[in-house]
Predict the structure.
Amino acid sequence: MKKYVLGLAFILVCCFIPTLNAKASGEIQMSKINSISCYYYAGCNAQMVKSNPNYTDVIIQNNYSEYSIVDMVTGTKLKTFNNRVKVNHNGSYYVIGTNKLENQQGDIEDLGIDVWNVNDFLPNSNILIVEKTINTLMAYDVESKKTVFERTIPDEINVMVGKDIYLIAKSTITVLDSNGKFKELLEFNSSVKDAQLTADNKMLAVATSNENLQVLNTTDYTTINKNFEGTKNSDLISIDPTNKYIAFRNSAGKFALYDFTKGYKINTTNDQIDVENSIVLSKSAKFVLVDEHIYSGKNLSKAVESIHFVNSYKVLESGYAYTPVVQVKRADGTSEIINKNVGWIPDNLNLAYIKTSTNQLVTRGIGKLNLKVSYAGYHFKQSIEIKDTKAPAFKGVNNISGYAYTGIKAMYKIKANDANDGDVTNKVKVTGTFNPNKPGKYKLTYKVTDQAGHISKATRTIEIKYNPLRHMYYSQYSDIYFSSLAYKSNGIRKYNPFLGTFIYKKDGKIYTRFEVSVKSPKELGFKQLKIHANGKTLTTSISKSKYYPYDGLEQIFKTLSTKERQWIEKNVSLNKKVAISIVTKKKTYKKTLNKNEVQGLYDVSQMYYYLKSK
């Protein structure tokens, strides 16, 4: 914009502050609270009545020749006129059409002059600015019926009245003082679409076709540094009387609301509303008229005023996923941390990237990068540092137990992962003695180092249990386990006299049985079995034996009681002598069991716990 002072021109250089459009993430709810009836063909043509200190009264066009003053809060018609109307600032005079004047008492008289168009009253006065003819501007005191000034004006201009008088042409605004004298010439780089003064007449907002909205100080008509981004080609400007908000119809024909003091857009639920010809903001935008509908602006205090980076996120750990957050300051002065609809875009994909499915920033290197941070139309760049300060983490380092000869390994179910290096299990070093085939408890230490030199250590104990299955046959047909050291694979006993044990599981219960047999040409008549071990003797009845003449074998199978099984478990061991006595009616057979027989007896006692664990 060029500014001319009394014909002397100079270029005004403007400074621009980056501010941005809002997104749906900062949307403010504006509920419809009322509707008013407007002229179908021309729309409401609503104008603010400045005599109401709350600025809730508007003049609307009801039909072709009827206009009313309407309360935006209730939708009530307060006063109706049979032509267009202008009201002075204290509400003492109404100019109806181009030739009638009504006072506060309702008395109507002729205006006293013939005019082509009525513009508006000068602030806080009875002086009416009119276009007497298409080329003559006139100031007229409606109370004294005297002309204040007359002057010639160009064709095809719009006249706006404030403390100064503005002649708006295609790409210029000529400023006259209240006496009609030339004051300024404001020149713009594109066509002026609309202009509006603040209620206090201290600022002038100008919308042009190719530039964003410009705000001028009316003291010297210098530009105030407010860059209303995305406001080119706007019109129907309305500024709330507190100078907090400004609304207009944007280039897409939609409603748009901005913070007038700072120039940022406030996203509202009205943003997709098509605007025909009227926008009016009441004081503090508590009520917003858009054509024939009135909306509540009570939620505007929650509008986002600024966003800031959260300090705790300025240093991030490599190898982690972070949900983008910002600290939001709202118009009511409150602050909060927001983690939805926040954008973080890194400028170095070697150090971090966005996981689109979750909108998370995934760090994967070490160094510094810039994040483009965005929320509710704000964005800025933030430098962050990605570090690797954490050692690898172990998983599965729990104390475990297993059976010998089952191939259990020291690294069983252990994994090591580093947030930056990934899977480092193959770098784990194990120290400590470990024999997976020898029963006992082994305490092992695990150590892993990542590329950054961070070390993690962990310990666990592996218990290797005696494996009774090693010397067992399993009969799938009968679901029985029996010792391969005492029996042949076909179930035939290897020794005589013979004491063998076997075990099976049925209906959820475990049964341990023994077999006692002696080869004899005649029936012996078993009476007792005595097992001598660990300096103690277990005596049990075997009186129900059966003799098989064809095989020359006397034999009995007996299920061990819990007490008998526990005795064998407690007293029979592989490194101790075990002897048996088979007492019959004829004689007593005594025998010291060999290693295989002892181990067969011991294994079956251990099989009880093996089967129980399954």
In short: The chain has four domains: 2-15+35-239+276-295, 304-387, 393-465, 468-613. The chain has a mean pLDDT of 89. The first strand starts at residue 2 and ends at 5. The chain has two helices and 57 strands.
